[in-house]
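Ticket #4471: structure output looks truncated?

Reporter: J.K.
Steps to reproduce: submitted the chain below (83 residues) through the standard prediction queue, then opened the result file.
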Amino acid sequence: MTFNPTVLIVEPERELRWKGKVLINGLFDGEHSFRLERSARGTRFEQGERFTGVLVPLLNGAFGPTEQGFKAMNEHLKRRAEN
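Returned output as attached by the reporter:
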């Protein structure tokens, strides 16, 4: 499946957020974000995804591979940042 996402927010060193859809708005939409928060302890990275639309209940449980990919990316990024 190919998405042509729309960038919603670009805040350098803070947040990148975009939204993609399947065919039309409200059918199956996915909003993805990367956020950075700085503190005295360092920088916290947060990755998020939110799905909305009428097809979401029908596809419940189909996001396992996507979620595994997010976790793998986060773990790799953590190892790289700590080196």
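Triage note (M.O.): checked the attachment and the full token line is present. The radius of gyration is 15 Å.
Status: closed, working as intended.
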